[in-house]
Design goal:
Length: 164
């Protein structure tokens, strides 16, 4: 008797679960399509990776090489990282007392040149990274340019101990 009353509820819960899983997959597919549709002609991204911080809750770093081939110079004005509350381009420098990190202004992209965002130089700091984002996964990075265009690309997420 008791199992007969539970069976309709269980069936309803199963249908609800399967429906929501399908919806989550549809949402993920839609986000992937949106990221894929944000491509700027003339921009190539290579050697991209996101390095998680060794201490949970600290910012992660994103590195990549951006090559631009276009008719007019543009600037790299901003960046966002899926799974982070905010992101900004930073640069390492010297202040006379050792190294320091500062926020970078817009970076000019000249046709035919490659801008390297790498350890010890320009890089992206991803702040308040979701604990759900783990090494071995991937996430999307979107850069915005001065002409209003945006370019999204996928990057691997790596642990702090992996090669940078």
């Amino acid at each position: 008797m008791k199992s007969a009353a539970v069976t309709p509820f269980t069936a309803f819960a199963l249908v609800l679960t399967l429906t929501s899983c399908g919806q989550n997959q549809a949402d993920a597919d839609q986000q992937s399509e949106a990221a894929a549709s944000q491509l700027v002609e003339g921009i190539t991204i290579a050697n991209q990776r996101m390095m998680l911080a060794p201490v949970s809750g600290n910012p992660a770093a994103v590195y990549f090489e951006l090559t631009y081939v276009g008719d007019a110079p543009v600037t790299l004005d901003g960046v966002s990282v899926d799974g982070a509350q905010s992101a900004a381009i930073h640069q390492m420098g010297e202040d006379g007392n050792g190294g320091m990190m500062t926020a970078s202004g817009p970076l000019t992209l000249k046709s035919g040149e490659t801008l390297e965002l790498k350890p010890g130089g320009f890089h992206v700091m991803a702040m308040q990274v979701s604990p759900k984002l783990q090494a071995g996964q991937s996430t999307n990075v979107t850069i915005t340019l001065s002409d209003g265009s945006a370019h999204s690309f996928e990057t691997d997420v790596k642990s702090a101990g992996d090669e940078r």
